[in-house]
From TrEMBL:
Organism field: Bacillus thuringiensis subsp. medellin
Protein name: Uncharacterized protein
Source domain of life: Bacteria
High-level lineage: Bacteria, Bacillati, Bacillota, Bacilli, Bacillales
One Pfam family here: DUF3800
Length: 415
């Protein structure tokens, strides 16, 4: 037992050092002076439990992003896009180009990348050295993360993402049953009196959930002991949520917009008009002006963003297409079998029977994403479970953590 703890301390320290070094590299990248253009997809505006169900589909993840350019390239790209419109045979009198002008409305991801117009657009983005950027928020994962965070603080020495991912896996398999538990306990405002009963219900749910992946049985054991060991902790994030007594799970989308402007504070950010977001940001800034510290006032003084009508900005229109494709990609990725992460023989194109057009569209999209990530890792941010991140990174041929794998009936962590 003593050896285990010493090894765990060593792993935690090495993980912390590694994370620190990675952050040092990334901090340099936040100083870039680029123009960022944005649109969003799958914006539920308020993600909540309504009539015992989620008010939006669990696979429809919020994506905010688009294209990113050096300022001196803007005019060149705008001119080139007008030429691309002719190649794509987009009607001249159409004021706003959207994703459904390039692939039929309601198309899934595979139909989308099969479209010649989408393939031509992706090729054009690559040929013109245009990068993409995005923030992705997994609605379901983000909504249940506080169940784990309330049991143990998130710190560099506590990798709660592992337990959050394990919980998410079971919830995803049987979402309707789990939402009924949340509904019964008025989640996220569970309260201290109901906390023990709530967590016992969560444990029972996990143990009863069927699965077809061997390592998941170990996850059940790990979650069981983790929850039982921390059961009597104060449920930090599950009480005093009176403002969320309507079972609201997410309503802070505006913070994702604002965080991008602060994260890339040397750049300028052009958002598609979203009145609710604009209003929330204005309210937040007003409160800082009235009650904030001098440091906060100085931090929030820089207005390096603008909301524009997308009809008047073709680069925001391009961003609409980009995030639309990304939204479909994440929905597709979620449904890729978990074996994909662990089985080196699992080939996407074979599993989904790609034809030559699927293959070409797939390769173009992967190349575009990888090219953007290699340009600047900070262009991409995902608030999601580790399994989805591992799938995504493996899809684009990028470094990834395999999360937890089984070998000789034991569980190994890779940090």
């Amino acid at each position: 037992m003593e050896v285990f703890y010493l090894n765990q301390i060593k792993i935690d320290f090495e993980g912390l050092c590694k994370a620190t070094e990675e952050m040092k590299k990334l901090r340099k990248d936040f100083d870039v002076n680029y123009n960022f253009y944005y649109d969003e997809t799958n914006n539920a505006r308020v993600f909540k439990i309504k009539n015992g169900q989620l008010n939006a589909h669990k696979d429809k993840d919020f994506v905010l992003g688009g294209i990113v350019l050096e300022e001196e390239k803007v005019n060149e790209v705008e001119s080139s896009f007008y030429q691309l419109r002719e190649k794509l045979k987009i009607q001249q009198n159409l004021k706003e180009v959207k994703l459904n002008n390039l692939c039929p409305k309601g198309s899934d991801f595979l139909n989308c990348i099969h479209s010649k117009k989408i393939r031509d657009l992706l090729q054009w983005l690559i040929d013109n050295n245009i990068y993409i950027h995005f923030t992705m928020l997994d609605h379901l994962y983000y909504s249940i993360a506080d169940i784990i965070a309330s049991l143990r603080d998130d710190t560099p020495f506590n990798d709660n993402d592992d337990f959050k991912t394990m919980l998410y896996y079971f919830v995803y398999l049987n979402t309707d049953a789990f939402i009924k538990i949340l509904d019964t306990y008025n989640y996220p405002d569970v309260g201290r009196k109901q906390s023990e009963s709530f967590y016992n219900e969560v444990v029972n749910f996990i143990l009863k959930t069927n699965n077809d992946f061997n390592v998941v049985n170990d996850w059940k054991v790990l979650l069981y002991f983790f929850i039982k060991h921390n059961l009597y902790m104060e449920p930090t994030y599950l009480e005093n949520n009176n403002k969320k007594n309507d079972k609201t799970l997410i309503d802070e989308y505006y913070l994702l917009y604002f965080k991008r402007t602060k994260r890339f504070d040397k750049g300028f950010h052009f958002f598609d008009e979203e009145r609710n977001v604009q209003m929330k940001i204005d309210e937040m800034k007003k409160e800082i002006d009235e009650k904030g510290s001098e440091f906060d006032k100085e931090l929030f003084a820089n207005t390096n963003y603008q909301f524009l009508d997308s009809k008047d900005n073709i680069l925001i229109q391009l961003s609409d297409i980009v995030v639309g494709i990304l939204g479909k990609l994440f929905e597709f990725t979620k449904n890729i079998p978990i074996d994909f992460i662990y089985d080196p023989k699992f080939i996407i194109s074979n599993y989904y029977s790609f034809d030559e057009y699927h293959q070409k569209g797939w390769e173009l999209l992967v190349n575009l994403i990888r090219k953007s990530v290699e340009k600047n890792e900070a262009f991409v941010y995902m608030s999601s479970n580790k399994l989805l991140r591992a799938k995504f990174n493996k899809l684009i041929g990028y470094k990834y953590e395999p999360f937890i794998i089984q070998n000789n009936n034991s569980v190994h962590y890779y940090i």
